[in-house]
Amino acid sequence: MTALIYVIGPSGAGKDSIMTYAKERLEAENRTVFAHRYITRAADAGGENHIALDLNEFERRAGLGLFCMDWESHGLRYGVGIEAETWIGMGLNVVVNGSRDYLPQAAERFPNLVPVLISVAHDVLRERLRARGRENNDEIEKRIQRNRQMSFSHPNIVTIRNDGPLADAGETFLSLISGSALAVQ
């Protein structure tokens, strides 16, 4: 069965690091691909490898139906291209860095969605956000508070803790996308 593997979690939880870890270790014959996101954020802003679009171009593409999913978060627009649906139609699993708020809409559009929640202790998250240097202390505390208030509901949700070494969470995620865990979905 093919699936959309929808990775979610708070900013700073290590989603991009875990996905990069797994992508670099996938065997050549693995039928999993990673979708990039289109974001109204500068290409050199750090973080994930994404396609940077200005707001006008993002809205134009959204209006043309070129995104299978799009949302707004923290003043930015995010989109996943319709190529993700094409890849699933070709029998590939597709990994995407998703949005916690958008999970219900994503699950409606992709019935075989497997949400993967990357969770992290609040004190570890706080330190990672501080080290990243993008937010001031007030903004970090707002993110921590938002994370405390988030709740998720989906029958196939998989939770991966990322409080320790990257390899621990990375290997768990790699196992999931390598098929053994997806076969039981």
Key terms for this structure?
Rossmann fold; five-stranded parallel β-sheet; 185 residues; four-stranded mixed β-sheet
Task: Describe this protein's structure.
With 185 residues, this protein is of the alpha/beta class. It has one domain (4-179): 3-Layer(aba) Sandwich (Rossmann fold). It contains 7 helices and 9 strands; from the N terminus they run E-H-E-E-E-H-E-E-H-E-H-E-H-H-E-H. It has helices at residues 15-25, 55-63, 83-89, 103-109, 122-132, 137-149, 166-177; strands at residues 4-8, 32-34, 37-39, 51-52, 67-73, 76-81, 93-97, 114-119, 158-161. The strands form 2 sheets. Strands 2-7-1-8-9 form a 5-stranded parallel sheet, with helices on both faces. A 4-stranded mixed sheet has the order 4-3-6-5. A hairpin with a 2-residue loop joins strand 5 and strand 6. Helix 1 crosses helix 7 and helix 5 (122-132) packs antiparallel against helix 6 (137-149). The protein is globular, with a radius of gyration of 16 Å. The N and C termini lie close together (8 Å).
Show the helix and strand layout:
Elements: E1 4-8, H1 15-25, E2 32-34, E3 37-39, E4 51-52, H2 55-63, E5 67-73, E6 76-81, H3 83-89, E7 93-97, H4 103-109, E8 114-119, H5 122-132, H6 137-149, E9 158-161, H7 166-177
Parallel strand pairs: 1-7, 1-8, 2-7, 3-4, 8-9
Antiparallel strand pairs: 3-6, 5-6
Helix pairs in contact: 1-7, 5-6
